[in-house]
Amino acid sequence: MNLYGLIGYPLEHSFSPAYFKEKFEQENIDAEYWLFPLASLSEFSRLLERYPNLRGLNVTIPYKQKILPFLSEVRGAAQSIGAVNTIAFRRENDPKYTIGFNTDVYGFEQTLMPLLKTHHRKGLILGTGGSSQTVAFVLRQLGIQWMMVSRNATAQSAQTIGYAEITREVLQEYHLIINTTPLGMFPRVEGKPDLPYDAIGQDHLLFDLVYNPTVTAFLREGEKRGAATQNGYQMLCLQAERSWELWNKYSR
What we know:
Elements: E1 2-8, H1 16-26, E2 31-37, H2 44-50, E3 54-59, E4 73-74, H3 77-81, E5 86-89, E6 98-101, H4 104-112, E7 122-126, H5 130-141, E8 145-150, E9 160-162, H6 168-173, E10 176-179, E11 205-208, H7 217-224, E12 228-230, H8 233-250
Parallel strand pairs: 1-2, 1-3, 4-6, 7-8, 7-10, 8-9, 10-11, 11-12
Antiparallel strand pairs: 3-5, 5-6
């Protein structure tokens, strides 16, 4: 039986096991999907040795960027972004040969594009982690100007500002706001980015990569003011299906 799984830490509230369990049952696929909480990536090599039937992995916080030096090669958008969320295996010649991909790009782009209006020409990316790099890559591909927002003052640059700099005037210019931080994720559902929400209106699109709860505190603030909103669930489903395609194409 082929084995697939997710590495990250911690993994208590992962979407992936239930998704793939249902997929495998519905499509009569003889496979299982397990959680592999790794307290350190020093455990990664031992994981590959322990499970020789492992054919694919997803990668989540905090390892999407840190995993790169542990991989045999990195392909496609993952090279440009510097973040991997999907690993395929070429075990036929080397039991530890791994290939890194980024399927978040596909999931995010396919979810975002139908929601965009002509006035969504500038976007604020809340957060500066691995997911923010994925979002920036997609916005660049779509010709949308973007600015990252960091809570770390030392991280500020020509394309990075602090939350204190997001004024009403800024939000009148940036109508697309994407939360890539874990703020508002279950169980701390009341958390939300520090924004002047009273400046948000019907022209805004708020996209939250968080999917649990379905409506985060961030999205709720947008809904109150008539903004379009989207959570991360569809993106997750699309990236999971893309991961499955890559595992079947590359893993042997």
